[in-house]
Design a protein that fits this description.
By secondary structure, the chain is of the alpha+beta class. The protein is built from 7 helices and 28 strands. Strand 26 and strand 27 form a beta hairpin. The two termini are about 50 Å apart.
C-alpha cells in the first residue's frame, strides 16, 4: 500500500478516534496506537488519554472512519444508478444524436450501434379524460405536447412524455373533427360539425383568437398550409392586419378546410376571409393532407406544367372523401390541380404525405438524412390513403400521379394512415382495433399490434423527429406509443 505521509496520519487518526469511541474495551489498543504514532494521535492523546477519560460513543457523533467506510458502498451504488440512467437516456434521445450525425458508439450506452427503426411496439401512456370518442389527434412540432379533438366538443392538451393532462379548450358546440398545430407550434386550429373553425394561441391562457365561418355543412378536417420556399412572411417581411393571426409567428399564411358541402376552402389567417374555394369533389370531402416544399435555396424553382416530373418544390394539399377520388393541388395563389388519383372502391377516410416538418427543406444531404436512410428521392412524393374498402394505397403524386402498391391486411374499415418519416414504412389503424406497419420495400405487413385500443381506432399521427406516435379511439382514450 502506497500512502503519503498525510494520508497515513489521517488514517491513523481515524483509527485512533474509532477505537476511543468503542469504549474501555478498546482503550488499551488505542493507547498502543498512540504510542506507535504519537504525531497522528497527538490531539486525541492530549484530550483523552492524558486525562484517562476515553471518549464515549454518542448517538449524534459518528467517527470519521465510519463515515468514510459507509460512503464507499453508497457511492458505488450511486455510480451504478447513474450508469443505468445514462443508458436509458441515450436510448430516449437517439433521435437527437441522429440529427447531430452521431453514431451510437459516440454516446455512452447508445445501444451498441444497432440502428433504430422508430416503429411502435408498446403503449407508454393511456390518456383518459374525454367523455366521448376521439375524432382527431395532432402532435406539437417542438414541445412534447399532443392535442386531441373529441365527440364531446372539447380539445384536450397532453404531455405525451409524462402522460400528464395539461388543459381543456372549450368553444365548439359540437363534435371536434380536426386539430392541427401550426408549423411554429404557436397556434392550434380546430374544426367542428358546428360549422366553425377556431384558431387558438398555444401560450398563456390558450385563448381563441379567431373564428372562421363560411361552410354550409359539417367541417370534416382542417390543416395549416405550409409556407412556400422564400415566403416573405417567414422573415417577418409582412405585417399582420389588426386583430389577425401573425403569419410570421405562425409560419403559415393559410389554413385549408374540408367539408360535407363538397368543397375545400383556403382561409387567410391575417384577414380571416376565405381566400379560395375549390369544388372539384362530387360528395362529402372527409380528409386532407398537406406537404411542405423542398428545394435548393437561391435557385429558381420550376412551376408545375413545365415538364418537370417531380413536385418537390411545391406545397401540396390533397383531399378526398365519399367520391373515392383523391385530388392533389398546388397550394399557391391559383390552387391548380397537380394530380387526380382513382382506385379505391369505398369512402377514403384518411390521407398522409411523408411525415416531415412543414417548413421548407433543402435537398442537400445532411447527417440527419443519412441516418434516416430515405430509400429514394421519390419518397418526398409519397401519398398514402386509407379507405373503408379495407385497403391502404401508396401513391406517387409526381408526373400526374400513380398507384405504387396496395396493402391488404386490415379486416375492417381503415381510419388512419401515416407515411413514416424514413419513407420506408406506412402505418395504419382501423375498425379492426389494430395498428399495422407495412414495409414498402417488401410490400408486406411486417408488424401488427392487435387490440391497440379496446374499440375502433379512429385516428393516428406521429412526430417527424421525436420517437412518439399518438392514436385515438372510440374508447375515449388517447394512447402514446414509444417507437423502438
Amino acid at each position: 500500500m502506497v500512502l503519503t505521509d498525510r494520508q497515513r496520519n489521517d488514517l491513523h487518526a481515524g483509527i485512533y478516534e474509532y477505537l476511543l469511541s468503542r469504549g474501555p474495551d478498546f482503550e488499551a489498543v488505542a493507547q498502543a496506537l498512540a504510542a506507535a504514532d504519537p504525531d497522528a494521535c497527538q490531539s486525541k492523546s492530549s484530550d483523552n488519554v492524558a486525562s484517562n477519560t476515553p471518549t464515549k460513543r454518542s448517538s449524534d457523533a459518528t467517527p470519521l472512519l465510519e463515515k468514510k467506510w459507509t460512503a464507499v458502498p453508497r457511492l458505488q451504488k450511486r455510480v451504478l444508478e447513474l450508469e443505468k440512467q445514462v443508458a436509458t437516456n441515450a436510448k430516449h434521445t437517439a433521435h437527437r444524436n441522429a440529427a447531430l450525425g452521431l453514431d451510437a458508439s459516440d454516446v455512452a450506452g447508445g445501444g451498441g450501434g444497432r440502428e433504430r427503426r422508430f416503429l411502435p411496439r408498446t403503449c407508454t401512456h393511456s390518456l383518459q379524460s374525454h367523455s366521448a370518442g376521439i375524432a382527431a389527434v395532432s402532435v406539437h412540432p417542438i414541445y412534447t405536447m399532443a392535442a386531441s379533438g373529441s365527440e364531446d366538443g372539447t380539445i384536450k392538451l397532453w404531455d405525451y412524455e409524462s402522460g400528464d393532462y395539461l388543459r381543456t379548450l372549450r368553444g365548439h358546440t359540437n363534435v371536434v373533427t380536426g386539430v392541427d398545430f401550426s408549423p411554429s407550434g404557436l397556434y392550434l386550429v380546430s374544426c367542428s360539425t358546428d360549422l366553425s373553425v377556431k384558431i387558438w394561441e398555444v401560450k398563456d391562457n390558450y385563448a381563441c383568437v379567431r373564428t372562421l365561418r363560411g361552410h354550409d355543412h359539417t367541417i370534416s378536417d382542417v390543416k395549416f398550409v405550409p409556407p412556400s420556399i422564400g415566403a416573405v412572411y417567414l422573415s417577418g417581411g409582412e405585417k399582420t392586419a389588426a386583430g389577425g393571426v401573425d403569419a410570421a409567428s405562425a409560419q403559415a399564411k393559410f389554413v385549408v378546410t374540408a367539408s360535407r358541402d363538397q368543397s375545400i376552402k383556403f382561409w387567410d389567417l391575417e384577414t380571416g376571409f376565405c381566400d379560395a374555394t375549390v369544388s372539384d369533389h362530387g360528395d362529402w370531402v372527409r380528409c386532407l393532407a398537406v406537404r411542405g416544399a423542398r428545394g435548393s435555396s437561391g435557385e429558381n424553382q420550376p412551376d408545375i406544367g413545365e415538364g418537370e416530373a417531380s413536385t418537390d418544390s411545391l406545397v401540396l394539399v390533397a383531399s378526398s372523401g365519399n367520391d373515392r377520388t383523391i385530388y392533389v393541388y398546388n397550394a399557391n395563389d391559383k390552387r391548380e390541380k397537380v394530380a387526380e388519383l382513382r382506385g379505391h372502391d369505398h369512402v377514403v377516410e384518411a390521407l398522409s404525405f411523408l411525415c416531415s416538418t412543414a417548413l421548407p427543406q433543402q435537398k442537400k444531404s445532411s447527417p440527419a438524412s443519412s441516418r434516416t436512410k430515405v430509400s429514394s428521392p421519390n419518397t418526398w412524393d409519397y401519398l398514402a390513403s386509407a379507405s373503408r374498402d379495407r385497403t391502404v394505397k401508396l401513391w406517387s403524386v409526381s408526373s400526374g400521379g400513380s398507384c405504387l402498391m396496395t396493402f391488404r391486411a386490415h379486416e375492417n374499415w381503415v381510419r388512419g394512415v401515416v407515411v413514416h418519416p424514413s419513407g420506408n414504412y406506412v402505418l395504419s389503424c382501423g375498425d379492426d382495433r389494430s395498428i399495422r406497419i407495412f414495409d414498402i420495400k417488401s410490400n408486406r405487413c411486417m408488424r401488427t399490434i392487435e387490440d391497440a385500443h379496446p374499440h375502433f381506432v379512429t385516428c393516428m399521427t406521429m412526430h417527424h423527429t421525436l420517437p412518439i406516435m399518438i392514436s385515438g379511439g372510440v374508447d375515449n382514450s388517447v394512447k402514446c406509443w414509444q417507437l423502438d
